[in-house]
Amino acid sequence: MRKTVGEAARATRQLAPAAVLSFGSYLFIAVLLIGAIGAVSVVAIGLLPETVLLVRRIAGAKRRMVAAWTGQEIPEAYQHVEGTVRERVRTVVRDPGTFTDLRWMVAYYAYGCLPYLAIPLWPLGLLVDGVWCGLLRREAVVLPLIGRLADLDAKWSTALLKPSPKAVLAVRVEELTETRAGAIAAHGAELRRIERDLHDGTQARLVSLSMRIGLAKRAYDRDPEAARRLLDDAQDQAEEALTELRHVVRGIHPPILTDRGLAGAVRALAASSGLDVAVTVDGLEDTDSERDGARDGARAPAAVEAAAYFVVAESLTNAAKHSGAERAEVGLVRTGKGLRVTVRDEGRGGADEAGGSGLLGMRRRVAALDGTLRLTSPAGGPTVIEVELPCVW
């Protein structure tokens, strides 16, 4: 009996906020009517997007309630509402998620009364099941109905709030549009960086080299020693120009990735970093492995390796410059659907994308490959950057 009462109490705790939400939904019909009037009224047309956004919040609250009871998340698929009044109205009217939420709300007016049925079941269940279970040692028959009410409410809500394939596709198209814009912006910034490096570095040194060779040619007949010194300087300039050119090429695609793979390239980054960096590799080809140089695991596509390499390089650079940490950890893990990269430092934390630390560039580079980047950096540390890059192995 004690177990039955406990399960019924748990179901009641689930149904109680559902009852409050149901009561609020009954009152919300007035807002819906105002929104409907606004849809046909030029004066009140601006109320429609705000009404739809309020419906989204109510539906989101119900999704969280169902997820807390079932343990399974109900995904959301909404288009962003922004821009002028006309654009906002057009967005909410064309968004398939709007119809899904309104359909659920209309149906919730009917089955939203389920939580209230638990009220009479409690005294009846305590009386009937108290005798049925306590005296006759039989299984409870009334109090378990409260749990079934919670199950039924969650089942119907899941079926009605689950986004349609059209809504998921619309959100996916919107995400890809934003990702494409970010990739184009990142590509443009990278081209400008390469142009700046070539113009300010390599090109300037080549101009100086050409001038020194010209001076050496003029001084060769009348002052061979001066010409020799100028040629020596020109040779130094040529070597410096080659070094800077290699640096620019390395910024486009590090040759070490081709030669040693991602694991070897990351180990080289760790060795050259100013921090004490520990690198762990799981499931990837690792020529630097201590196991007799065995090439265990597989290699990701070149674009994925390049993105992962730059994430690690930028993260370690930020940690060395801004975190105040002495140690860092880098993890490379092959997953069933892609590659996971984790960079952790024990610094002061507080990393912010708006601070110009390269995090926005990393996020754009990762998003261009349909990946995700999660940043955790509370004040006082630690700072953890976790990147998921999808790929086919």
How does this model look, in words?
The chain has helices at 2-27, 29-40, 47-70, 85-94, 96-111, 118-134, 144-161, 165-219, 224-252, 255-272, 302-323, 359-367; strands spanning 276-282, 327-334, 338-345, 372-376, 383-390. By secondary structure, the chain is an alpha+beta fold. Strands 1-2-3-5-4 form a five-stranded mixed sheet, with helices on one face. The chain starts with a helix and ends with a strand.
Helix/strand layout:
Blueprint (H helix, E strand, L loop, with lengths): L1 H26 L1 H12 L6 H24 L14 H10 L1 H16 L6 H17 L9 H18 L3 H55 L4 H29 L2 H18 L3 E7 L19 H22 L3 E8 L3 E8 L13 H9 L4 E5 L6 E8 L3
Parallel strand pairs: 1-2
Antiparallel strand pairs: 2-3, 3-5, 4-5
List keywords for this structure.
393 residues, alpha+beta, elongated, 9% strand, 5 strands, five-stranded mixed sheet, single chain
Number of helices: 12
N-to-C SSE series?
A: HHHHHHHHHHEHEEHEE
> What form results from the Cα inertia axes?
elongated
First and last CA, distance? 54 Å
Mean pLDDT: 80
Gyration radius, rounded: 32 Å
- What percent strand? 5-15%
Ranges where pLDDT stays below 50 over 5 or more residues in a row are 290-295
Strand order of the largest sheet: 1-2-3-5-4
Taking the sheet with the most strands, its summary is: 5 strands, mixed
Provide the helix percentage: 55-70%
Based on helices, strands and strand pairing, what is the structural class? alpha+beta
Say how many strands there are: 5
